[in-house]
Design brief:
2 copies of one chain form a homodimer. The first copy, chain A, has 12 helices and 11 strands. Chain A is an alpha/beta fold and 346 residues long. Chain A folds into 2 domains: 163 residues, 3-Layer(aba) Sandwich (Isopropylmalate Dehydrogenase), CATH 3.40.718; 153 residues, Isopropylmalate Dehydrogenase (3-Layer(aba) Sandwich), CATH 3.40.718.10. In chain A, strand 10 and strand 11 form a beta hairpin. In chain A, helix 6 crosses helix 12. The termini of chain A are far apart. At the A-B interface, helix 5, strand 5, helix 8, helix 9 and helix 10 of A face helix 5, strand 5, helix 8, helix 9 and helix 10 of B.
């Protein structure tokens, strides 16, 4: 009998809640025949959504879904400390609890990032030797993808923190991409007036002697070139890079659309170009990159974009599955322990 | 007799040197009939380039160009301190000297950013009350453009520095866009685990009481929405946002091109779409945004992208001209002095 990977879904969170997460669950079950999903939320509402969204083809999958009741929901803008204290029976918290209880090997949520991080840390605990969790996601590039972290869990990261992010990102890339020695770059500003800040310079020195496949400094435009597998930065910087990219992509798409809508002739040109434009859109479709990993915890927590649709949320479930199969937290834990032993011995 | 605006060009710097800057100078002279240009560099080489690039139509413009000799060139990767010390007869330095000497009202260079900043500070001095210069450029948006600063002159900017950047950006936007009360936003990370860092929070408090048209925090995706006129951030963050945007735009253009080149049919579709694609390209053409202002100096210094072509470099000359006409440094100086008086009185 082959392994079954159990994943808990925070079914009530995100901009669209059950009406995205239930179809996403069904999509993921069709795609991956080796997963079971625990939908965590108001039992009655979850069952109703399941009835609403299930089609004939899903009948055989229903036994792969169980429902775990949770009476509360964490609001998207609720302060993390408050959610941690007052939302102990929320869909988010109960979903994380499933991992702690050993009933699931990963949790996926489209909810409040700060609350998910706070609850994840509190319930699952940090891996020994890792000071802070980091948010990591894959970004599309010219030749594939690059894993980038941290994307907003930390601000004012120290050199040691950046170093730990590099180690975690490298382990993630090894696991997800079957890449034995991922190329790791440290995000910096290059040819400008002042080259880097103190933390980045100190992190560079640490990484030079790290044993990772460290290639040195990279700049913002390297994110999309695809010549580096892991890009490490402070969470403030990474979050700005990510959001800036989202904004630019949206502007470009809007301007392209406006130009094709200008006249009958341009609309015709657009129609004629539809296969090209659709293929192009599929290549850069952010839904195929939805799902950010919270690294550094003793468990797998994947954050979906709040506005994700079912295809995007299903992608986040796929990421959780891969991290279970590849035992990402265990690999990070082993690596950091070896490193700490080495330092103590040295 | 109407005013003539004199601009010194560092004619030897940038990736392409004279073969871009001389044609750019001629283009700018055709476009603006109220400027005179001082080409600073090796006299013999500059004259040869002028002869090479001048066409019949330019004959009447030649008296608007003068040549100022400089025997050295600052290398693109030369450390700023070394350039400052050893390149006193470089085209960059002599061009800046023209402003100090009152022979020009602005300088434009496509050279080494750090060296240009160091020489600009040394020769022209900071405006009283401004601690650090900032690099500011216009970014295209859905509805026009946004001025963003700092883009790499400073790292680890304090709240007071961010506040000064806001003031300078607001003055620039007022001058360039004839906008009496530009909307100023402070770049932050929003709905993430930790909201902002200490400097940003403290700058927010300063800006709330500033009298600027401060609209509060904005995020990376707001850069391209066009709902804010000035976006303020630390230079490390701003530089990453700028370079990330360059990389993403390049990736999107490459992927679009690849998809249109895939087969005879897609090439035909591309041909049919050419008017649309050309118009789209023109709208987001980075050459129309080339030219970053070094704000905070007692003089106008505009930095062109090193790889700029003549159209792009001519745009940077246009920015210098506008800043002269609108007296940008004087306005910043007056505003900061009023503010300092207010603080001392308060």
């Amino acid at each position: 009998m082959s392994a079954i990977y159990r994943i808990a879904l925070d079914a009530m969170s995100g901009d669209h809640g059950l009406d995205v997460i239930v179809p996403a669950a069904l999509t993921a079950l069709v795609q991956y025949r080796d997963i079971e999903l625990i939908l965590v939320g108001d039992t009655e509402k979850v069952q109703a959504a399941l009835a609403r969204h299930s089609q004939k083809q899903h009948a055989s999958l229903r036994h792969m879904i169980s429902v775990q009741h949770a009476s509360q929901v964490v609001d998207m803008d609720e302060p993390p400390a408050q959610a941690l204290k007052k939302k102990k029976d929320s869909s988010m918290r109960v979903a994380i609890d499933q991992v702690k209880l050993g009933k699931a090997a990963a949790v996926v949520s489209a909810g409040n990032t700060g609350a998910l991080m706070a609850m994840g840390r509190f319930v699952l605990r940090m891996l020994p030797g890792i000071d802070r969790p980091a948010i990591c996601t894959a970004m599309p590039t010219l030749h594939g993808h690059t894993h980038m972290l941290d994307l907003g869990a930390n601000v004012d990261s120290s050199a040691e923190h950046l170093y730990q992010f590099a180690l975690m990102g490298s382990e993630l890339a090894q696991a997800i991409d079957d890449n034995a020695a991922p190329k790791v770059g440290l995000l910096n500003i290059g040819a400008e007036a002042i080259k880097g800040n103190e933390q980045v310079k100190a992190a560079d020195a640490l990484l030079q002697g790290s044993g990772l496949n460290y290639i040195g400094y990279v700049e913002g435009d390297d994110i999309y070139l695809g010549d580096v597998d892991v890009i490490v930065c402070d969470g403030f910087v990474g979050n700005v890079a990510l959001k800036t990219s989202e904004g630019l992509a949206k502007m470009i798409a809007d301007k392209l659309k406006t130009n094709y809508s200008r006249s009958v002739l341009t609309k015709l040109a657009g129609l004629f170009s539809l296969p090209v434009l659709n293929r192009f859109r599929a290549e850069v479709d952010p839904r195929h990159y939805n799902g950010a990993s919270f690294l550094g915890l003793q468990g797998i927590v994947v954050k979906s974009h709040g506005g994700a649709d079912s295809l995007a949320f299903a992608n986040a479930i796929g990421i959780a599955r891969t991290e279970i199969i590849k035992k990402v937290p265990q690999h990070i834990g082993t690596h950091i322990t070896e490193l700490l032993d080495l330092r103590q011995a040295g």
